[in-house]
Amino acid sequence: MAPSFNSSHSSNNSRQSPASQSQTTFSSTSSDVASIHTFGPREKSPCKVLIVGAGVGGLMLALCLERAGIDYIILERTQQLPVPKSTIQLGPNTLRAIEQLGLLDEVMQVAKPVSTLTLMKHNMTVTGRMDCLFTKERYGHYSCIVQRSEFLRILISHLPQGKVLWGKYVLEIVNGDAGVQVRCSNGYIEEADIIIGADGAYSAVRQNIYRTMKTKNLLPKSDEEPLKHTLNAIIGVTQPLDRSRFPAAYEQFSEITVVVGKDPLYSLWLSPIVNNRVIWFVSGELLKPAEGENTNFKQSEFGPEAVDAFPPFSGQGAEQAIMDAIYLANHLYRLDENPVHEDYVKIFESYQRRRSPLVKSADQMTHSMTHLMNSQGFSADVKRKLMFALPDWVKNVGVDKMQVRPLLDYLAPVDDKGKKSVISSNAM
Ligand SMILES: Cc1cc2nc3c(=O)[nH]c(=O)nc-3n(C[C@H](O)[C@H](O)[C@H](O)COP(=O)(O)OP(=O)(O)OC[C@H]3O[C@@H](n4cnc5c(N)ncnc54)[C@H](O)[C@@H]3O)c2cc1C
Question: How far, in Å, CA of 201 to CA of 223, rounded?
Fold first, then answer.
């Protein structure tokens, strides 16, 4: 998520939080900004947050702010929720906070827990099988495949009416002394104290920030490069399948099957999801890397979504977007009543310090996994075989490192049901 702010005043948009009656003081170590704070929504919102994008990250942030008593509005370019064209993977890192928000039962209605990942060669011989059920005991929850649009619908159903403004395509952002102003393609203007870009891979918010940074010579060289995609993928969801022909679609658990193709190399991913359907991806590395800079793709209906910092099937994109929202909400909750510019700087610096190491390790892990699953040749075959043959304790080391399981500081905590506690450097 890309934050932008420029504020030397506090918001006039303060609102009374719905449950401001019962606030309890408790302590927490989740940010560098403050260590003692109140429990429950704030009585008066310290600022107004403008969220661009009603995707996984934007809606999750909205719900976290709603419960924190912080004023917000979401601008979304589409006219309505997307049709159910894809899934997201949610695991212990996010399901604990989802449970804390009281949404776990609803989310599990549209989720299927994953039992195994089976890797096969093009001739359908099994290279290896990986158990995924262990996450429940070790980290507290199964890893689940969730229908994306249904998940978004659940989040929206917990927001008050009118908080998502549909059909608002944000084009321009202007920072001023009195906050930030955005202009949409239809001429609509909205103002707030801070803006959070949750608008996907080709984020308008990020591009606006980069433009400003560039004029001030602050933009790192690496960020001047255009965003490239390195993989192609076609993704689809079947209709409900016939039980006699596809019994796996009716199982309680989803068994993910990956078939690594040959010459030219494409991998086929199949996973049963709820309602007896199966989601499938065909993916492969680009044969001509130059195609990754195709700007038409960027403008297309599917392009902006289909390229992300995390490859779609890595199972990390949505998880990381949700964790961004949790960390950000915890930081915004700590703002002083009448925040000034320096207060915002302080919380965003703290947010970045805490999020960056975790995002970097998730990024490294998913990119090497994706490369391994999509690369060709004898050595890639051997590496895949070796990886699947590793003893559990070795495989677990990598997964343990990514465990955070963050909670919202201002809501009643829920128990960590995982036997393996979060490693201390990851703890919020
Ligand atoms: C086909 C597919 C399959 C995937 N499968 C998985 C998976 O199995 N597991 C997993 O974890 N992740 C998966 N992902 C990735 C995951 O969906 C994303 O990482 C996650 O949705 C990122 O959330 P986000 O909120 O940052 O962005 P998005 O969900 O992309 O939401 C961005 C929102 O911003 C809106 N928007 C964009 N520009 C503007 C603008 N200028 N003005 C207003 N609104 C704007 C968009 O319309 C969209 O609603 C998949 C992605 C795709 C495309």
Answer: 13
Count of beta carbons in the 10 Å neighbourhood of residue 314: 20
User: Average of pLDDT values for 204-215?
Assistant: 88
The helix/strand/coil state of 270 is strand
Q: What is the CATH number of the domain that holds 381?
A: 3.50.50.60
Q: What is the DSSP letter of 7?
A: B
Query: 354-374 burial, b for 16+ CB within 10 Å, e for fewer?
Result: bbeebbeebeebbbebbeebb
User: pTM, whole model, 2 decimals?
Assistant: 0.87
Q: 93 — alpha (psi -120 to 50), left (phi > 0) or beta?
A: alpha
Assess if residue 366 is contained within a domain: yes
Tally the domains of the chain.
1
In a domain, 15, yes or no: yes
- Domain of 37 in residue numbering reads as 2-109+148-226+315-426
Q: Are 59 and 318 within 8 A, CB to CB?
A: no
In a domain, 142, yes or no: no
For residue 204, the CA-to-ligand 1 centroid distance in Å is 14
% of the chain at pLDDT higher than 70: 81
For residue 220, what pLDDT band results from cuts at 50, 70 and 90? confident
Average pLDDT over residues 392-415: 90
Residues with CB under 6 A from ligand 1: 52-58, 75-78, 86-89, 148, 169-170, 198-200, 204, 235, 305-306, 308, 310, 312-313, 315-319, 321
What sign for the dihedral angle of Cα 57, 63, 64, 66? positive
Which has the minimum average pLDDT: 14-28, 66-80, 93-107, 406-420? 14-28
Question: Is residue 358, in this structure, part of any structural domain at all?
Answer: yes
